[in-house]
Each structure stands twice: as C-alpha cells, then as structure tokens.
Amino acid sequence: MEYKVFKQIMDMHRDGMTMISELHDLGFDLMEGKYQLCEIIDKQFQTTLELVYDENGIDWINWFIYESDYGQKGGISATENGEPICYSIESLWEYVEKHYKL
Questions:
Q1: What are the b/e assignments for 20-36, b being 16+ CB within 10 Å?
Q2: How far from chain centre, in Å, is Cα 101?
Q3: How far apart are the first and last CA of the chain?
Q4: What are the domain boundaries of the chain?
Q5: Distances (CA, A) of 22 to 3, 19, 26, 27, 101
Q6: Are 24 and 35 in contact (CB under 8 A)?
Q7: DSSP 53
Q8: pLDDT over 90 at 47, yes or no
Q9: How confident is the model at residue 23, as a pLDDT?
C-alpha cells in the first residue's frame, strides 16, 4: 500500500473515532447500544488492512492506535535491536510494509 493511502486510512480512522468519542461525551452512544457506528467503522478499517497485511502487521497497527494513541501517548514505545519502531504513522507504515505485507 502506498504511504499516502495508508496515512489517509489512518487519519480517517482517527478522525472517525474522535468524532464518535466526542458525540459519546454529548450523550450519543455510538459505541454500544442500537447504533454501533464505532464497530462498523472499525470493521471496515480492519477489513481494509486484511487485504494488505498479515495478522502480525495488523497487530502492530492496532498497537499503534490503541496503546500509543496514534503515536501521541508519551512513554509508550517499541524498539527492535535497540532502535525505535512504529513511533509515527510513517515509521509504522515502513515497518509493516517491510515485515508484514501479504
């Protein structure tokens, strides 16, 4: 997958989840209940990733999203041979493209 497309997909996922979270704060439950828009967005995202990356690559992408908050959470890092990996969208893309592309 080209970096431009990968970044666009990641940005859309982040923006969609942010909007859902903000709506949840206003009293709209789009994570659970009748209108589970959060689940639909995430399934679409995961299905797209499955077309390009193996399970390990998708795990790294999910780690980047949920554990490092899209690379924004301080103190969360990953290394390989002492070198930082997956610390930005671009470094994540480079890593999964090199190691986990189908």
A1: beeeeeeeeebbeeeee
A2: 16
A3: 10
A4: 3-99
A5: 28, 5, 7, 9, 34
A6: no
A7: B
A8: yes
A9: 93
The answer to whether the Cα torsion of 57, 32, 9, 71 is positive or negative is: negative
* Band (31; pLDDT cuts 50, 70, 90): confident
* DSSP conformation letters of 11-46: HHHHHHHHHHHHHHHTT---SSSS--HHHHHHHHHH
**Which two three-digit tokens encode residue 33?**
């209940």
Distance CA(19)–CA(34), nearest Å, equals: 18
Q: What is the mean pLDDT of residues 38-48?
A: 94
pLDDT of residue 3: 98
Task: Summarize pLDDT for 51-70 with one digit per residue, the tens.
Answer: 999 999 999 999 999 999 99
State the Cα–Cα distance between residues 44 and 68, nearest whole angstrom.
Answer: 21
What does R_g of the chain's alpha carbons equal in angstroms?
Answer: 15
Q: Which tokens go with 38?
A: 């959060």
